[in-house]
Amino acid sequence: MQVFNANITDTVISFFKDYSSYDKTSLNTILAKICGIQLFFETQNEIDILFNTIQSTALVISEPDRAEYGDFQTNEILSDRICSFIKKEEFTPEIIIEPTCGKGVFIISSLKFFTGIKSIYGIEIYKPYIWETKFAVLDFFLNNEGVNVPKINIIHKNIFDFDFKQLSQQYENERVLVLGNPPWVTNSKLSTLESNNLPPKSNFKYHSGIDAITGKGNFDIGEYIAVKLLNSFSEHTGFFALLVKNSVVKNILLEQQKRQLKISNIMQFDINAKQEFNASVNACLFLCSIGEKREYSVKEFDFYTKYFFKEYGWFGNKFVADIELYKSTFQLEGMFPVEWRQGVKHDSSKIMELKLIGENLVNNKGEVVDIEDDLVYGFLKSSDLKGDTISSPRRYTIITQKKTGQDTGYIKSLYPKTFKYLFGNIEHFNNRKSSIYNGKPSFSIFGIGDYSFKPYKVAISGLYKITKFSLVMPYNDKPLMLDDTCYFVGFDSLIEAQITHYLLNTDICQNFIRSISFDDAKRKVTKELLMRINLKEIIKETKLDELSAAIKGIDESDWRIYIAKYSAVNKESQLSLFERNA
Tens digits of per-residue pLDDT, 395-407? Predict the structure, then answer.
């Protein structure tokens, strides 16, 4: 049966039927003694609705799907395992705090496993879950007489407005356990859903304006909640146990050198989110001690087997994905001698991307496109960068500019058919959402410059776990272009491209990349990561006979020229160039 759109058991219904004549004050007093909940009913009207409902025929209401809001309710088996694990750490909490408590599963598990609890606080914005939690807690105590009854506050409030600092001060001398499952959704996702359950606008991660524009201002709501709680309670004696996306743990560690939170014994236990929540996301139990000391790395385990995977975090002043592997390759930490570039960004694939079907170019709307050949280039995406050498494309794109911001007026006079096609689809360009196109010439693209037109490229996908580099050759006497999910360096010399391609695929370089890249990142490979590769050190580890076996026709003079050009790097000037163009 459901009351207030919340599930209620027969045990709880029978209990309330025995108290149908009680008023709000009397009934709340009785409930506080039985199950610890303070102010079970806020109004007499709530009591009247309850009694009217339970006297009627059983009411069943389908529960709305709240997964789009990042609402993945924890099952009882999982919450029990988590509380059991904390108990084995010989930690006995006095205060339990569950942010976004949902249906109260963690509160019930806490009552099962911890006998010395004084107070419990559950905060939840969705009112039906408030009732379901209250009913579940009452049901627990009705079926478990004689157990400890702490004071329990189930609070209907937006988590972002809740004053955890006040709670922290109130219980500064008690052992605190913060546990739960905050939403697995980003602030931008909630904005698109027109949700009111958003944190106040603030420079949460201290990003500059340009970073916010390019997406770095987007953050995980679970991360915001976790950091808010850590800021409030990291001086206490206690434990944190939150189910979050893996990226949240990584980001908390990334910020740890700035925030200097008192967190230690930091562990990440990876869970099967598909099995537990039917969610396609990398998630884990984030567990740490608070109030003791400051640590800067996390040990990663499998939740089910406790198998140790690796330790990641800060090693000196570098943030790395595998500390042990990094120790064996750290000499490659440095600055790449040339600048890595991202491919072309156009945000209009229906118009700008073409396929050759027979003798006709066809766009992604299925239309035959009759345009001049001059601005049409072979086009590679991340999914194309699987081979060792790539010399032909599966698709094509229109390159409207030689450099970012170039006036595109020339297209009308020099390439009238291309202009007619582009202008005929002007609404697709005008509807592009990114603000980078504001005030720019018609049909503008980004990620374009002299480097794009280099005939030979060494390229890598930013999206895949495999970190193999591909050698990209020209096609039909034109350079192949790459999209903005790819990174590349361009060369005028084939032999230089071949040598660079070989060096980047050596075991030592691949191990270094694995030591600093995260498999569960949205982009495993980034420009910042690639710029950290010290090519000079790889050159020192490489012998001419190895190159000769791998690259046909190379001789000693080629190798000497390459060493002279790519070993002599002015780090300061290269760094400033990188920062200017990042």
Answer: 999 999 999 999 9
DSSP state, 332? G
Listed in order, strand segments (DSSP E) in 140-219 are 151-156, 176-180
Which residue, 489, 515, 511, 501, is CA-closest to 551? 501
Torsion from C-alpha of 439, 441, 444, 448, nearest 10 degrees: -100
Please tell me the predicted confidence (pLDDT) of residue 278: 87
Interatomic CA distance for residues 228 and 248, integer angstroms: 13
Give the contacts of 385 (CB within 8 A, at least 6 positions apart).
459, 460, 461, 468, 470, 486
**What is the CA 489 to chain-centroid distance, rounded?**
27
Q: Which of 400, 472, 411 is nearest to 437 (CA)?
A: 400
User: What's the CA gap between 199 and 160, in Å, rounded?
Assistant: 5
Residue 384: how many other CB atoms lie within 10 Å: 22
Distance CA 574, CA 467 (A): 24
The neighbour count for residue 467, using CB atoms within 10 Å, is 20
Tell me phi and psi for residue 326, to 5 degrees: -65, -35
CB 220 within 8 A of CB 183: no
First to last CA, the chain: 58
For 426-470, what is each residue's pLDDT tens digit? 999 999 999 999 999 999 999 999 999 999 999 999 999 899 999
In the chain, the amino acid numbered 308 is F
Nearest 5°: the CA angle 221, 226, 227 is 100
530/513 Cα distance (integer angstroms): 8
Structure confidence at residue 210 as a pLDDT band (50, 70, 90): very low
Q: In 295-451, which residue ranges form alpha helices assigned H by DSSP?
A: 323-327, 349-352, 410-414, 416-424, 426-430
Predicted TM-score (pTM) of this structure: 0.80
Q: Do 37 and 104 meet the contact criterion of CB atoms below 8 Å apart?
A: no
Give per-residue burial for 308-321: e unless 16+ CB within 10 Å, then b: eebbbbbbeeebbb
Question: Is the domain covering 78-91+154-320 a CATH 3.40.50 domain?
Answer: yes
Residue for token digits 């459901």? 2
| DSSP string of 64-102, one letter each residue | P--GGGT--PPPHHHHHHHHHHHHHTT---SEEEETT-T
The two tokens of residue 84 are: 């059991």
Residue pair 105/74 in contact by the 8 Å Cβ criterion: yes
Identify how many contiguous H helices and E strands the chain contains and give both numbers.
24, 23
71 to 168, 440, 488, 524: CA distances (angstroms): 26, 40, 39, 26
pLDDT tens digit sequence for 461-518: 999 989 999 999 999 999 999 999 999 999 999 999 999 999 999 999 999 999 999 9
How far is residue 554's CA from residue 495's CA, in Å, rounded to a whole number?
7
CB 523 within 8 Å of CB 382: no
Six-digit token pair at 468? 């193999």
Question: Where are the domains positioned within the chain?
Answer: 78-91+154-320, 341-581
The rounded distance, in Å, linking the Cα atoms of 467 and 281 is 21
Under 8 Å between Cβ of 208 and 126: no
Quote the CA–CA distance of 415 and 412 in Å, as a whole number. 6
Cβ contact 446:344 at 8 Å = yes
* C-alpha to C-alpha distance for 262 and 234, rounded to whole angstroms: 5
